[in-house]
Amino acid sequence: MRNLLRTPFVAIFQNEVLLNTKRVAPYALMILFTANAVLWWSRPAVQFGWATNSDWYIVRNLLAFSFLLGLPIFNAVIMGDPVIRDARTGIDPLIFSKPVTRAQYLFGKFFGNFFVLVCCQAVFPLTQVVLQAFPTSRMIVLPIRVFPYFKHFFFFLVITHLVLAAFYFTVGTLTRNSKIVYGLAAGFYPLYISYGLLLIRPLPFRWRLILDPMLLGASLRGNGFLHTAEFLNQYVVPYTADMIANRVAMILLATLCLAILYVRFTITEQSGNVAKLSTLNLSTAAESVYYPETSPATRLDESKKRHYTAGAFLPAMPNRALPEVARANEGIRANVNKLIAALGVEFRLLRAERSLIVITPLAIFLPTLELAFYRVVPEVSYSATYATGTAKTLLFFLIGMTVFYLVESMQRDREVRIESVLWAKPTPNFVLLLSKLLATFLLMLSVMAITGLTAIAIQLLRGHAPVELYPYLVTCSVIVIPSIVFMAGVSILLNVVLREKYLVYVVIVGVGAAVFYLYSQGFNHWLYNPMLYQLWNYPDLTSAGSKQSIILVHRIYCLAASVACLALAHILFQRKSTRGVRMDGHLTDRGWSILLALVSLTTAIGTGWIISSMH
Amino acid sequence: MLKIRELTKTYGSSIQALKGISFDVPPGVFGLLGPNGAGKTTLMKILATLLEPDAGTVEINGFDLISRKDKARRLLGYLPQDFGLYPTLTAEQMLNYFAKLKGVTDKRQRQDLIDALFERVNLSAARKQRLGGFSGGMRQRLGIAQALIGQPQLIIVDEPTAGLDPEERIRFHNLLAETAGEDAVVILSTHIVADVSSLCSQMAVIRQGAILASTTPQQAIYQLKESVWEATVPREQVAALKSRYQVISSQMLGGQARVKVISKGVRPSEEFKPATPVLEDYYFDLVNQRETAN
């Protein structure tokens, strides 16, 4: 009888699990989910007298966990890439030449990665199971229970994410393009919210429940706030027929996705994707290329060797002498010339980014949407209101774009394997780093300028004249630009230190989510709010407001921190340059970086102290 | 002249890629020969200022390349074993960029240089083409073109002919030979013995992070004069021959084995005939000797 554990399906499944154990992402997700479990354990249960391990509270936490904190996006990170990874590493021909069926390959990959995803997610209920043994003061804890955590975890979370996983896996495998998967993942929240508001909201509750893939309606109405603590602590969440119908529908949907994938999947190379691959493999052919062993060149007789030239085998080659050229590699002017050259190339590469076609119109359109369609109430003036509204929304887009394009450009040289060629050129490290920073920064300025012009055009079209440029300029220069510079500095430092693209994204998204959670809970101190989120209004930027001084000091604080990040990135950059801080009586690049880091850190600490005392 | 002294590099705590190697590299094409994993690429990366050694010095033009990387990069032309280019740029844009990074600021000079380089590597017709559409050979030729920018005094080419077809390979050899005629030190790292044999005036054999020999191809072959014998024997006899003689290679030909043995001035047996030694024989003999000694 055939041993099921020795089938290719199991081998591929095991291999996927093994590959994931060597990736950073699953561990980073586990840490993030554990932190979430701890964070959500007591809040808001203690405040409202809810038992932290009641059936209802377990479901409430699991539903929130399933939807919030980018879990659907993390799903895409794990599930979108497995088949693309095989194509990228070039291992797919080796696998497809083995007696492996399409089904074994696809389902081995899918279930292997989904198993890893579920293990990562299971850290959340597992942590909360453990936390039952460590109640804090004033916390109500019912007798310790384990089964409800995993029963609800499977019902509410695993089945939901099975659909998303099947969808991302199908899209990633059929398109062999991870950017499309991540684009869809990034669009999850707007799409889901639109689906909820426009399509299923008008339906009766029963249909809303059946058609909601996240099953968010399974929680009690009012999210518990309409009931007493005693009721909630005793309440057992039932699996109603509608909920079961929803889950069955989700499983069928996942099966449909995988069935479409199975039918459409082909193991032959997709010709359209060849040119899109950015990796150019130059030396992978067989090592033993033909060489005439009997060639005179390989023989002892040197008189014959002299006659061995290509001319004997090939038409004569052109032999133009290389002209002598003057080179300038020292001094500020030479380095500025190199920086301009590198900047030019960065712009050309940015222009070739297809994502810009999607992201830039979104960044311009969304911040001005509210201005175009809703009633605008002028506070100081119409221009001030338009400028403030645009700046507040645009800032989020610009921060996201800054992080994305900087991380991509920082990693691009390694991904296309041009790094070794570039790094062997006599170019200072700061040119390599600053060119990427400046290219991204100038792109953001362009987006900002176009968005500002769009806002002005809307202001004129709606008859909200006169247009004043000052509010636009002051919001951009005081709020938007320093915030972008700060994010750029942090992104470059993280890239240099972590060197792994996805790790950088996970850290930035994780820290960003945590910080915004803290802001929403009221922990919104100026010192850890570099974007001044919820801390300013237009009058604060003028002498009419009470916060003008602290805002200006805060901006210096942010810029100093950005410069410190850049200087540290330069010091820690993997490409090593001249040793020591002094050479031939002058400071080396490293010496200048250390000096700059010290000055900027001192400035940041000084301004931070001033902010604390002013706050 | 490039002087390498006591160069050591260990990866992690156990993999010693270079074990304190020392040798001199005179102007001309210098072949660094060794099997895969011998430490060639590690050495090339150190010379290209991309990797920090644990210890040792590399002196060029009177200064230490390890501690003065910025200065060394001005003299350097590097063609890595495995490299890529921006696929969305054209060949001309790419070469123009590299020239600017090398400090060629004068626009007319840069244009003349790029024209000459394209002609030299036979890519003039493809200069406006995007690099994403280049074949392996074309990319390799562009690779050598970028390494020749700015009169480099030290040119490092790491496994340059792997993946090239025979025609491209000969073109590449000619390019390197012409470059070496311009007083530069050209270090050619390869595991293909024939490349060294046809191109290099000096060579070193590296294995397991140590230099086994540093000589000229002519001297190396001369050492085996009247010592190499070959015979065509049934396949089953190869094992017996290996136990009796110093077999340096055996190759299957039409169901039979062509065996080469080393025997200094003495014919091993009737079936053996004298063979003209080639560099490959020297390489195999050297490696066999070292394995026997170990």
Spans where pLDDT lies below 50 across 5 or more residues of chain B: none
What is the approximate shape of chain A?
A: globular
Our count of domains of chain A comes out at 2
Number of domains of chain B: 2
Layout of helices and strands, plus pairs?
The complex is a heterodimer of chains A (615) and B (294).
Chain A: H1 8-21, H2 25-42, H3 45-48, H4 55-67, H5 71-79, H6 82-89, H7 92-96, H8 102-131, H9 147-175, H10 178-186, H11 188-200, H12 205-211, H13 229-234, H14 241-264, H15 302-305, H16 332-351, H17 355-373, H18 382-415, H19 419-423, H20 429-461, H21 469-498, H22 501-520, H23 548-572, E1 582-583, E2 586-587, H24 589-614
Antiparallel strand pairs in A: 1-2
Helix pairs in contact in A: 1-8, 2-8, 2-22, 4-9, 5-9, 5-10, 8-9, 9-10, 9-14, 12-14, 16-20, 17-18, 17-20, 18-20, 18-21, 18-22, 20-21, 21-22, 21-23, 23-24
Chain B: E1 2-11, E2 15-25, E3 28-33, H1 40-47, E4 55-60, E5 63-64, H2 69-72, E6 76-79, H3 91-101, H4 107-120, H5 136-147, E7 154-158, H6 166-180, E8 185-190, H7 193-199, E9 202-207, E10 210-215, H8 217-222, E11 228-234, H9 238-244, E12 246-253, E13 256-262, E14 273-274, H10 279-293
Parallel strand pairs in B: 3-8, 3-9, 6-7, 7-8
Antiparallel strand pairs in B: 1-2, 1-4, 4-5, 9-10, 11-13, 11-14, 12-13
